[in-house]
């Protein structure tokens, strides 16, 4: 999986990070920051993914043309990808599907400029709102295999992805793996559930994806991250909470949140021990709902991505404010000359834009003044 930049909705309580994310998203299609999927070595492949989580489908062909076939709308086969609002074509690279819907389960064809098929993806976007979450440390069990009630011997089971990396190093952390619903007939290859069922209208509590979590402990590696996001937040008086979003986070990557340097775990949430925060299951904890002011930090693949500082509150200890002031000063000193290549590029782009704008204004002014020189009158008061 490649890096992902996913921005939160604009909120009055937290605007700096939203602005940075919007700027970063201008560059990400070229930098490959989104989780991506490609056929290993074939021109046709089948996979299951999760709805509401951005994904990039690769097709390395100049002048590529994309068509899609949605399983629940066979009457309109085929369709042009450009007609779908949440699908963006990145020329010569592939397509980016933002927050895919379960109804977008189907076939995605990529053809070269001569109409020859380069790759075909058969994708089942399984409904993340039905995600079944279990934690090994709590003795919770995944879904059991069942027989599909279609009169045959079809078996419904979960096909598990490999475990993701541990979300913490040097100390106990957690790791997760995703599991997708598959159906298998005797002597046939398993097929993702909704690619198998197509437009058949049926529902079962077994027809859903899973996420399993367990504790882990791994040594630390040298960090390679070269930029960190700082942002401030304020608890909303109406909802008595605020949502924080971890930059570059994704359900397909390991994420860790800390509150005042204390890790927030799935085990604590699933056992109802953590009552002041909520990890959003639908995006693997990329978003965190907080109800109490604290210093929140998020890590992606064990690398610090962002620190969220509370705006001054009467009930925030003075020691916490002093500690944060010292951290911000140290971060400012440490960040001099160490901006990441993306941020440097953005700064350079903004600088060039400002310079060109000023030059344009100056040229316009001189041209205007030169044409009117004969009509100018000097007034002396």
TrEMBL record:
Listed GO CC annotations: membrane
Regions annotated as coiled coil: none
Signal peptide, first to last residue: 1-32
Organism field: Canis lupus familiaris
Membrane topology according to the record: Single-pass type I membrane protein
Superkingdom in the source lineage: Eukaryota
Sequence intervals crossing the membrane: 348-366
Protein name as it appears in the record: Family with sequence similarity 187 member B
Major subcellular location class: membrane
Keywords of this entry: Glycoprotein, Membrane, Signal, Transmembrane, Transmembrane helix
Compartments where located: Membrane
